[in-house]
Write a structure and sequence with these properties.
115 residues
Length: 115
Amino acid sequence: MILIKFKDIPITERPRERLVIYGSESLSNEELLMIILKTGTKKYSVKEVSLNLLKSCNGINNLKDMTLNTLTSIEGIGRVKAIEILAIIELAKRMNEEESIKNMINCINPKTIIT
């Protein structure tokens, strides 16, 4: 496999620039992870590390279940990157929880419940 250096990717195709131009919604999960991870290794590009992470957790929905040990077992993800990923996951959980609480129905009087 040929290692593609990040600097060889055209500027308009780089995730950060694409986010600025098109918005975060337009980026793939892989590209969002590339922004978070920032760098790869001598052996693997940040793109490959992102793909390996997604494969290791069988998709973005399972990323929330990853542990520090599981993350650091992925080549290219050391302790610091794993901690950053776990912090982002926890923030996402809290934001989702906060949104769920806001959307709950507030029932003060049982008579207001329609069956």
